[in-house]
């Protein structure tokens, strides 16, 4: 009979430790499963966490970045496919050759240029208006046989006239310029675009599909540079001359005026109430058309009076500007208001009286109104002919008048967008006639005109103001004549 071998105490202890360790691992795994499945979305101080919040955030950020990169890559690939189809169509139509030295004006990422090379136009370069402040400077005159501007080109140009000049300079004679734009959706903006490139010959204008189904239709306009044609400065030089000139009003301006608010035909008994009602009906030009493709944007307040009256409370707050920056001019002869304009940035003060020629005038100052109402008083009165009588000097201030029409023609170019507000206490009949005779009226895109007449007085029912001799019928004739001649003018009170 064998004697049983005694168990090794060390082996027994090892088995116990292994079992405890296995149990501990099971507990940890169970806890991990709970954290991941139930509470894995957050990690706070009351929970056991295998993954700190910072690590989870980094993982999430990395995942988001990876997804965004994939989306961006997919979008870029679709853009290249889209532009490849555009360029293949232009090749088929004969506007683009595989041997053309070509320029693409587009996005910073350059899908347009890549697509151009992928269809076989290897001698191609690309520029972005957002990346370079002067992108055309490195190119010599008549470098390219083909230039393409995507919606990231002309539509993003802060100075469209300079853009057009540079395109014209770099395109060879006989070369083509193709522009894609999401603007030019109306006759006004389309005409503005054609005016920008009037040294080119318009070949074709059509609509093509956008990048995807959610994108708007794109206007594709094709120009050709003909030899010996350059018109960029002709009209500016003509308008700056001193000779009397009349301008031709395009038909689309007459169509715009048909869509404006109707004129008030019957004389209002309470014009101060009528104005408050009518201002709500005014159809501003930028609410009807796209004002892109203009060179500069200008607002001229003639008889501005206080800053808040003509600029701060109205033009700055109410006039729809389509995110354009306007250069502002305030023409005001009354020195009562001059100090407040000197403190205003972005406003050029002309401390003179708008008139039909350069001469000294006597300027009526309504002092009672100024004392009673402070800076909100009427202030500016009618321009009077030069008088030598000392009696006049005690009632009228001696000021300098300047030729408004000739000033306007010296400052404004035909490709500028110009808004004029005129409140000149009765001299509007003289000024408008001068603007029409000189052709300067054609430089104005939109006018807000206050016509002064012997209106019914607020203080005294059935009694007319003796200050003005003109009648409401004469004012209505002035407004009607301007609109019939293609000027978008609004009645102001």
TrEMBL record:
Keyword Heme applies: no
Occurrences of domain DUF7870 (ranges): 258-338, 397-493
InterPro entries assigned to the protein according to its UniProt record, in alphabetical order: DUF7870, SAM-dependent_MTases_sf
Transmembrane feature ranges: 12-34
Gene3D superfamilies according to UniProt: Vaccinia Virus protein VP39
One example GO MF annotation: methyltransferase activity
Keyword vocabulary terms for this entry: Membrane, Methyltransferase, Transferase, Transmembrane, Transmembrane helix
GO biological process: methylation
Protein name per its UniProtKB record: Methyltransferase
Organism: Abeliophyllum distichum
Lineage: Eukaryota, Viridiplantae, Streptophyta, Embryophyta, Tracheophyta
């Amino acid at each position: 009979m064998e004697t049983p071998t005694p168990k090794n105490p060390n082996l027994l202890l090892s088995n116990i430790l292994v079992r405890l360790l296995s149990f501990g691992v099971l507990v940890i795994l169970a806890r991990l499963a709970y954290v991941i499945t139930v509470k894995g979305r957050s990690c706070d101080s009351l929970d056991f966490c295998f993954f700190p919040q910072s690590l989870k955030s980094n993982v999430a950020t990395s995942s988001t970045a990876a997804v965004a990169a994939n989306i961006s890559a997919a979008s870029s690939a679709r853009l290249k496919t889209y532009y490849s189809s555009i360029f293949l169509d232009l090749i088929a139509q004969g506007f683009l050759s595989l041997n053309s030295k070509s320029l693409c004006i587009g996005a910073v990422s350059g899908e347009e240029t890549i697509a151009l090379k992928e269809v076989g136009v290897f001698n191609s370069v690309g520029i972005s208006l957002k990346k370079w402040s002067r992108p055309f400077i490195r190119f010599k005159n008549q470098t390219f046989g083909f230039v393409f501007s995507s919606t990231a080109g002309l539509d993003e140009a802060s100075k469209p006239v300079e853009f057009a000049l540079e395109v014209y300079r770099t395109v060879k004679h006989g070369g083509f310029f193709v522009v894609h734009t999401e603007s030019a959706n109306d006759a006004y903006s389309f005409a503005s675009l054609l005016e920008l490139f009037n040294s080119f010959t318009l070949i074709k204008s059509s609509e093509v599909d956008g990048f995807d189904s959610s994108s708007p239709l794109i206007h594709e306009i094709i120009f050709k540079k003909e030899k010996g044609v350059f018109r960029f400065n002709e009209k500016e030089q003509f308008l700056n001359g001193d000779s009397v000139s009349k301008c031709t009003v395009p038909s689309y301006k007459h169509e715009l005026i048909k869509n404006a608010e109707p004129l008030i035909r019957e004389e209002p008994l309470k014009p101060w109430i009528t104005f408050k009602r009518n201002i709500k009906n005014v159809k501003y030009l930028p609410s009807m058309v796209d004002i892109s493709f203009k060179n500069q944007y200008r607002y001229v307040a003639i008889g501005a009076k206080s800053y808040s009256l003509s600029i701060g409370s109205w033009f700055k707050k109410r006039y729809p500007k389509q995110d354009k920056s306007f250069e502002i001019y305030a023409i005001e002869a009354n020195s009562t208001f001059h100090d407040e304009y000197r403190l205003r940035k972005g406003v050029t003060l002309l401390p003179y009286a708008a008139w039909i020629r350069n001469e000294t005038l006597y300027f009526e100052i309504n002092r009672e109104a100024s004392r009673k109402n402070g800076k909100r008083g009427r202030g500016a009165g009618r321009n009077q002919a030069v008088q030598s009588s000392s009696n006049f000097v005690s009632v009228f201030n001696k000021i300098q008048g300047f030729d408004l029409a000739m000033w306007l023609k010296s400052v404004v170019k035909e490709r500028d967008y110009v808004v004029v507000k005129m409140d000149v206490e009765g001299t509007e009949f003289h000024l408008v006639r001068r603007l029409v005779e000189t052709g300067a009226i054609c430089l104005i895109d939109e006018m807000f005109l206050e016509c002064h007449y012997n209106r019914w007085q607020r203080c005294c029912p059935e009694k007319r103001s003796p200050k003005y001799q003109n009648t409401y019928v004469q004012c209505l004739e002035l407004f009607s004549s301007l609109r019939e001649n293609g000027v978008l003018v609004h009645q102001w009170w």
